[in-house]
Transcription factor E2F8 (Tichodroma muraria), 810 residues
Amino acid sequence: LKTPLKQAATSQLVLTERQPDCQPLTTPPKPKETPPADPWTPTSNLKMLISAASPEIRSREQRRQLSDSSSEVLQTKHCLQEHLLRDEYEKSQPSRKEKSLGLLCHKFLARYPDYPSPSQKSYICLDEVTEELHVERRRIYDIVNVLESLHMVSRLARNRYVWHGRHNLPQTLQALKKVGEENKYIQQIQMIKKREYEHEFDPDGERNEEMASSFDSSEQSEMSFVELPGVEFRAASVNGRKYKSLRVMSQKFVMLFLVSTPQIVSLEVAAKILIGEDQLEDLDKSKFKTKIRRLYDIANVLSSLKLIKKVHVTEERGRKPAFKWTGPEVLPNTQDTKLEATSTTCSPPISESIPSKEQCSKALFPSKGKQNFTRHSSLIKLVKSIENDRRKIQSAPTSPVKISASMYIFLTFLLETSFSLFLSQMTAEEMQMKCALSSPEAIPKPEPSQQPALSRPLGVCPASHSSVSPVILPHPQSGVSYAIYLHSSQAHTVTTYSPGFMLQPLPCANVTGIKSNNTKVLNKITTEQGDTQRGLDEPTKSLAAEERPERKSETSSQRCLKRSQALQENNLIKRRKSDEESLDASLTFFPSGYLIPLTHCTHGNKAECSNKEKAGVCSLQHTAYSSPITGVIPMPASELKTVNIPAFHITPLNIMLSPNSIAAAPVLSNSCLNSSSTSSAPNPSSSALNFMLQHIGLIPAGVQVPANPVLQHVPVSSQSENSPGSTNVQEGKVIGFTFYSPINESNFLFSLQPPAPKEPQDPQAVTENFFRTPGGPNTEPSLSANSDGTQRTSQGTLYIPQRKLEVSED
DNA sequence: TCCTCCCGCCAAGCA
DNA sequence: TGCTTGGCGGGAGGA
């Protein structure tokens, strides 16, 4: 076994010895029969010869017999014998399937425990393995290389490896996911899909500019092996070939699964990406075929590990082989639920031992190496700030801030909207960190006695409605209605405050303008999400039903907060569930919006009202709701999950939000805004802001703050200064504002700003394009399936383009 | 016919 | 120099 080549060599020798005088071998002289259409191939010939020649003597005899060729009878006999031998040989030989790498890998894995005891190391001796498994050494290398890429084994010395089992797997997968994200594999996949859609795969084709830039950006990270601390990598050949190594390819392949949603990767795409990183210009067919071969090798091993499963993706151009990730879900660094529960330990899945938050933080924001995290320095501040505030809150005798329910709603919407965008810039780890730090006890719960007694809920949004509930709000001043998308929970809360208005559920497609052929998908997804939401909320709801009598006095704000907590607790489950559900949903975009409450007592008595309300006197029945700056912001379904973080509390904090993170725009059109802002009625934005500021006691009652001075442009970053969006903001429109909290002397900074377009264009167009209005002139803000709907600018900000939605997969 | 992937040549690099 | 390691592509088996 150690010398399989020698065997082959021997047989080849035999072959060469025999062939000169062995004509009949290729054309068995069967009487009255034409020679086989398919002449014997060298390989089958060889196989036959091996079997026939196994005893050397017989071989010689045969040769002698053949060379003699004196007797035709003998020859015929011999040929028949050979045929029989060949048949026997073929029957006795394991079939191709039985020799597959996958099966071999199964056998290999069966030799070692999944989780070996750390105390006793298992060593792998290649010679032993090859002998025991009756396999060529070469094949073992294939397996070992892939296992090495997952740090399940590591090379110790020549012929010797150490078996780690699956202990390192979660950590490895996390690392790979992170690197995959950094390498922008999602963009590359999308680019390839887009290109596929546009052109046929053209080996000699020019390098697509977009693709080139996408690859170029990833080339910075170069093809290298992702190592784990503590798992030393000692490849036999440390340079030269390492970049093409099966190990590296395997890691990249795994990365593709980990970063894509759904976690299905076609071989074609994977091969193209792997080639693309290597040398895109040599994208010829043979290279492509070779990559595919290797990917099959890798896929076989990964399948044996039950990390992936073969599937088929049916596209317009037919059925394509693909693989689906069936391995463990790779959570971003920590398991937030656990973290929240224990609150003192940061528990990464593998987590040998990362005992403190400091270490967890280190893991999240490692100082070494190039990190995309650099653009999220604000998050570090945020985390610290949250920590500080939580400390303050916990030590404070009473709740630090009493906010009204309506204020809470507004801010929740605002924060959710902004945070959904903001968080989309964050890596998964950062999000996890954020979730981990916003533990439920940090949420200030308003005291029921101090909350205004609320009117009964209208229940306008039926329970059966999806979690994203469109409602129409009439706008008394402009005479037009606003369509707002709300989560059912939020809509429910909102309707509590708006008894005076008819709120009508609308078909999603009508409001969003998403193409009708996608409506089904959308509805299905929304329904499913709604179901999920309901399902998850069920315990809460039933509890609520049981406790309804006592809870009548409970404020909406409290409910909202509690719901938030429930949502937060269920966040992880939801994410998992909706990940499954959103196989294609990731390509679908939901609108989101928020609502600004406006009181009737805008002129003059606002302060009074505000005061009254603070005292719980001001009846909310007098509160009218308008939506002067409602934005309809499309976002992927996946981000809706992100949106569900209302546990963020309204404690004054030093919050730095991305300057582009909050979008505010009139629902209908700019002309509406213009008419609104030029009318005698006060600017809704300023009214809203005054209302809010007074409402939460950030400005004294009676003080009216004009829109522009207060809603001043806050220089959040240099970018916002130069952003075409900010320069184009119309008068009276909120760009940014700061809340000053007298309670703990900290600022609450918001910035509202349209995104910077990729290229300079008409300011008006920028605004209109981004804040596409349902029912407006551009009624179809549909989005492209070729991208996740987002593009990052060089500053790392987010821009959501409005493009066609094309669901490519069945 | 095409997908799948076994097989082994042969070169790089190590001992 | 012999051995280990592993890239690579031909071509066979199977659907």
